[in-house]
Write a structure and sequence with these properties.
Helices cover 31% and strands 26% of the residues. The chain contains seven helices and 16 strands. It is elongated.
């Protein structure tokens, strides 16, 4: 076999290896590619409420709003009648989303604790996340009325009408609730919650301890509840329909809830900026390392292929470019897969991995190794 034929065979083999590697990366990052998974939300057979399975979501038809002449926006309350399926998970139970407001209020279960977070502006005008948590708030399979009431003096949390904890420095404004209601996951991330929701009520005022106790008695009595003007309710859902895809709001002016046929993260962004994705956590660092390491082999293979027709520097440049384009395609496709995230951090780290792999490659050495397996 002459030298020209040998080089052509080597290039063909490496080209096939490149195609296999690219499809392997696409398969690994997209599987299972299902943009329309079933929405795992079902009505309870033995009472009022919904059961949220492995990935379930319920959303309001429109934005929650205040009635005309409502009270000041520095007071509000939330009541959640729920039963967690486990205390070994950390997921989002309730969220409120408005398109132009990054301060999304999230009510989350963090193993057996309650975690409530939102964003706020500090003195320098920078956005920072503030939170509070209540330890041992949940028990597996136990029905609980969780009441969060907030006013100018802070926020108070009640468990079954019993005072659990106070947070003087954490306040929730009514404006944070005036958006789309999302139950079962975060509105922007895949954070599915497992459990049952039997009731939800939202008020545009700070409930007193007496009102908290009265509401608790009403929730557990399973009797029809009449809302008066003094209640300042802007939404109340008893989940008593027991069938269908609509949950009615007892407050006439408020939006109903809908159970979509398929699960999706309602407002998941495409190609979220790396700045917004940054999270100083061990999980985030592990993801960075894995994204870089995962594209190093691809960079090596691509660099060997391009070195057949290009100088080393150009081969490295072309390998990095292909790695970037592949990562871009992956992130765009992942925007349509509910369980995946789409962000520029992965594009940056994957590009870096391809660059490192290509820069560390000795094409001549790899070609010599391949030549040993050629036919004589």
């Amino acid at each position: 076999m002459n030298e020209k034929s040998s080089a052509s065979l080597e290039k063909k083999r490496v080209g096939i290896l490149c195609i296999v590697a690219i499809f392997a990366v696409l398969f690994a990052t997209q599987w299972p590619f299902n943009p329309w998974p079933a929405n795992n939300v079902a009505w309870l057979a033995d009472g009022n409420g919904l059961r949220f399975g492995r990935a379930g979501v319920v959303v309001s038809e429109g934005l929650l709003g205040l009635a005309r002449g409502g009270p000041a926006e520095n007071s509000c309350s939330i009541e959640l009648l729920l039963r967690p399926a486990s205390v070994k998970v950390s997921d989002t139970i309730l969220a409120f989303y408005t398109p132009h407001n990054p301060a999304h209020l999230l009510v989350r279960q963090w193993t057996d604790g309650l975690l409530v977070t939102h964003d706020s502006l500090d003195a320098a005008g920078k956005t920072r996340q503030t939170k509070f948590d209540v330890d041992r708030a949940f028990q597996t399979g136990r029905l609980l009325l969780l009441t969060i009431t907030s006013g100018p003096s802070g926020t108070v949390v009640y468990r079954d009408a019993t005072h659990a904890q106070s947070f003087p420095r954490f306040t929730i404004s009514t404006s944070e609730l005036l958006g789309q209601i999302v139950l079962g996951t975060s509105p922007v991330d895949f954070r599915p919650w497992l459990g049952e929701i039997h009731g939800l009520a939202i008020y545009s005022k700070e409930l007193t301890p007496a009102e908290v106790s009265r509401h608790y008695a009403e929730w557990i009595s399973a009797q029809p509840i009449k809302l008066g003007v003094e209640d300042a309710a802007i939404a109340r859902y008893t989940f008593s329909e027991r069938a269908g895809r609509e949950i009615h709001n007892d407050v006439v002016a408020g939006p109903n809830l809908q159970i979509p046929a398929t699960f999706n993260v309602p407002h998941k962004p495409m190609l979220r900026s790396a700045v917004k994705e940054f999270d100083p956590s061990r999980r985030y660092c592990n993801d960075i390392i894995l994204n870089i390491a995962g594209f190093i082999p691809l960079g090596i293979i691509l660099c060997v292929y391009f070195s057949f027709a290009h100088p080393r520097f150009q081969a490295i440049l072309l390998s990095t470019l292909v790695g970037t384009l592949l990562s871009f395609v992956i992130e765009v496709l992942q925007a349509y897969i509910p369980s995946r995230t789409s962000g520029t951090t992965d594009i940056i780290t994957n590009t870096l991995g391809a660059l490192i792999g290509a820069a560390l490659t000795n094409p001549n050495l790899v070609r010599k190794i391949l030549s040993r397996y050629q036919e004589p």
